[in-house]
Amino acid sequence: MENDSERQNGTAPTQSPPPRRLVLASQSPARLGLLRQAGIVPDVIVSGVDEEALRADGPEALARVLAEAKADAVAARPEAAGALVVGCDSVLDIDGVALGKPADAEEATARWKAMRGRDGVLRTGHCLVDTATGHRASAVASTTVHFGEPSDAEIAAYVASGEPLHVAGAFTLDGRSAPFVDGITGDPGTVIGLSLPLLRRLLADAGIAVTDLWAD
């Protein structure tokens, strides 16, 4: 109900605009979990992009191309109208070679035997599309991973769990392979699948504060 001064001045109470809707163009539960832990509850629309059909010159470029393809595919859908769409994709860079999800258990085993005791760079591409304004920007976050030296038996047990077949680089920091990673240099979110600091910067460039996306 309006108070006396509002009736006299002919003004109505001001209301804050509703928070912008964020759409995650990824089916990754790890990315969704990172956003929720940061107070953001996005909708999820899977892009359906054929990742194997995309090519680029080097791991960093590939991570960006994949993220852009996912974000663009979802942003073009009617159900994403008016939303902020975020697409992400990760690849492991070992000596300039891009490694995504292993094709099978044999490949996952060979990969772990080859990278144990070495360093790799996990590169995660991010693309933000504001479907309300047409603003689009992308960037890549990189974090160095220092792999431990699991035994052949430990590698076999890990591969048998099935986990490495579903994650870029055949490992993750928040799963069963965590004991086999000695440390990282950089943002852990990049390795898990989404760099929150980079997302904040992309949002800021679009004129949006990440705090405005926090759920009540």
Automatic annotation (TrEMBL):
Coiled coil: none annotated. One of its GO terms (cellular component) is cytoplasm. Its main location: cytoplasm. Residues 1-22 are annotated as: Disordered. One of its GO terms (molecular function) is nucleoside triphosphate diphosphatase activity. Its EC number is 3.6.1.9. CDD domains: Maf. Keywords: Cytoplasm, Hydrolase, Nucleotide metabolism. It is found in: Cytoplasm. Its cofactor is a divalent metal cation. Signal peptide: none annotated. It comes from the Bacteria. The active site is at 89 (proton acceptor). GO terms for biological process: nucleotide metabolic process. It catalyses: a ribonucleoside 5'-triphosphate + H2O = a ribonucleoside 5'-phosphate + diphosphate + H(+); a 2'-deoxyribonucleoside 5'-triphosphate + H2O = a 2'-deoxyribonucleoside 5'-phosphate + diphosphate + H(+). Pfam families: Maf. HAMAP family: Maf. Belongs to the Maf family. Nucleoside triphosphate pyrophosphatase. May have a dual role in cell division arrest and in preventing the incorporation of modified nucleotides into cellular nucleic acids. This is Nucleoside triphosphate pyrophosphatase. It comes from Streptomyces zhaozhouensis. The lineage of its organism: Bacteria, Bacillati, Actinomycetota, Actinomycetes, Kitasatosporales.
